[in-house]
Write a structure and sequence with these properties.
This protein is α/β, with parallel strands linked by helices and 160 residues long. It has a single domain, classed as Rossmann fold. The protein has a 6-stranded mixed beta sheet with strand order 4-1-5-6-7-8. The longest helix has 13 residues. It is globular.
Length: 160
């Protein structure tokens, strides 16, 4: 199995600098997490954007869509900010012949108490089992695009 990983920023890759929450989006963390897990499947990573998802535009989503559609890989994993990943998932609907999974983190992967590694693992496992379509892997669950929302108050994703 070959997985194409596209990173677009978000909390998954954030680096915080001070107590005022000053941050920037750092280098992708997915390859480091996968190396630590000693995975045996082939993957390649391409950083498309380094943005907080609240700053993403329609043009950014079109870039993501074109990269996914043009990729020769059938299995696509996207690390994305949690605030607007549902919008990107909906923008990717209709791409055929691929399993596309979007995941993110509520806490940066660089933090000890992050959910990033768990979410990435759930996403990789789901990529191998799901039929073609667009999905979100968050909160230990897999959701179909268009049928999920972020519950900010509870700090989790749930069916919409």
């Amino acid at each position: 199995m070959q997985i194409q990983i596209f990173t677009v920023g978000g909390t998954f890759d954030k680096i915080y600098y001070d107590a005022l929450s000053d941050f920037h989006i750092g280098e992708p963390m997915a390859p480091e997490i996968l190396a630590e897990a000693r995975v045996t499947f082939a993957y390649q990573t391409e950083s498309l954007l380094q943005k907080d998802s609240l700053e993403m535009t329609a043009e950014d989503r079109e870039l993501i869509r074109s990269k996914v559609a043009d990729s020769p890989a059938r299995h696509i994993l996207i690390t994305h900010g949690t605030d607007t990943m549902t919008l990107t998932a909906e923008a990717l609907q209709g791409i055929t012949g691929k399993v596309v999974l979007i995941t993110g983190a509520m806490q940066p992967a660089r933090m000890r108490s992050s959910d990033a590694a768990f979410n990435l693992g759930v996403a990789v496992g789901a990529l191998q089992a799901l039929p073609d379509g667009v999905y979100i892997a968050m909160s230990g669950r897999i959701f179909e695009a268009g049928k999920v929302k972020k519950n900010r108050a509870a700090g989790r994703f749930e069916e919409s």
